[in-house]
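As a next step, the fold was encoded as C-alpha cells, giving this record:
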Amino acid sequence: MNTDPNTAEKKEYKLKAARRAGASEAVYGFGLIGAWVYYFTHAVTFWLGVLGFFKGIAWPAFLVYEALKYLHM
C-alpha cells in the first residue's frame, strides 16, 4: 500500500505531460516522412537513398541550426 499523498497528483502530471508531447511527435513524424519522400525521389543510386534515409532522421537538427544562424544567436 502506498502512503504517499501526492501519488495521484504525480500520475495526473505524467498524463498531462504525455498528452502534450503527442502533438510534437506527430509533427516530427510527418516531417520525417516528408523528408524521406523528398530524398528518396531525388536519389539516383541506392547509396544516395541510404544517405537520404539518414538525412531524413537528422533534418530537424539542421533546421534548428540554420534558424539560429539566421537569427544571429
Remarks:
- The CA atoms of residues 10 and 18 lie 12 Å apart.
- The chain has two helices and no strands.
- The chain has a mean pLDDT of 79.
